[in-house]
């Protein structure tokens, strides 16, 4: 069982120039649940009253999934979470030498003592505790093992392995997670960043190596280049690894639109899983194949993600595309004429940088009959 713990409402909102209001947060939380998220990380109580009020409203939705907050591993942050009524917390602690220097003046003993105190307090309150290993990918593996052993001995439930600055590769992820997961100390959660475009691949690689869950964000929103994307991880798990999620395409589409609007980020037309053009087949050979079998050039169907298939009439079209459009308008064209039309279509499209619509094609075809 591999869980998706979505952090659109925490790390996603940390993306520069992004700020969600309460209504947007509630809408996104509901839609994340409906689209298949197993758990949600929804905010940072230490930010103050407004954030705490929002968190309470999200909890009041009573979604039947785990709702978590993000906290520094401090008693004050923990207290703020407890006061909100949260039953699950991520307690974050730096684990790489560079961040231990920055945040704990290099004092690992102090760090371990503080972590122990705060985890024990959280467990005393009956909370589910995930230890967030900030900057795990730049940390010494032996130190991670020490943190995980300590975590296990004091009752923590999970360790979040964070690729905080996004420097992992799938191979390195696999090696590190395999080594840590084989110790069977704590369940491991992947938290991957996209600085080199590998966040989703690294999350999946962690899963293959024994991690039990991954943080995601819708449209990959998040710090700097963002996080592993919810829709990419969800679809990869269901389509490539057989995870049993009933993806509701309408819900996915509506979730993505909500996050795009609330974050003021547009969705690239070629964005995997959800980009508007990812089922637009222009190349002649592809269209020819698609006319014979719908799975010829598609890894999954557009309706699974609420998109539509298209066959634009463009520079790379072949006669199959022209035939498809003309037949749809009740014309049974002469194949030789279609061959003659191809260079004309290419020239028009290249000159004006815009594909032909089917009416223009019809006119072109009918004109060619008059010549
Ligand atoms: C990798 C990540 O994504 S971590 C999550 C980061 N997210 C955010 O920062 C978004 C929300 N943050 C905020 O609203 C504010 O930064 C607050 C409310 C949390 C804190 O604000 P301030 O009190 O003004 O502190 P400020 O942000 O300047 O500094 C953070 C402090 O937390 C300390 N700190 C950071 N991480 C940790 C940690 N995991 N455990 C303990 N202390 C920590 C820092 O060392 C610093 O302490 P210092 O003041 O003694 O130098
Ligand atoms: O410590 C955590 O739980 C996550 C922190 C984070 O967002 C990161 O390391 O990128």
TrEMBL record:
Keyword RNA-binding assigned: no
Pfam families recorded? HCS_D2, HMGL-like
InterPro entries annotated for this entry?
AIPM/Hcit_synth_CS, Aldolase_TIM, LeuA/HCS_post-cat, NifV/FrbC, PYR_CT
Question: Its domain of life?
Answer: Bacteria
> What molecular function does GO assign, one term?
homocitrate synthase activity
Q: What does this protein do?
A: This protein is a Fe-Mo-cofactor biosynthetic component.
Protein's recorded name? Homocitrate synthase
**What species is given as this protein's source?**
Arcobacter arenosus
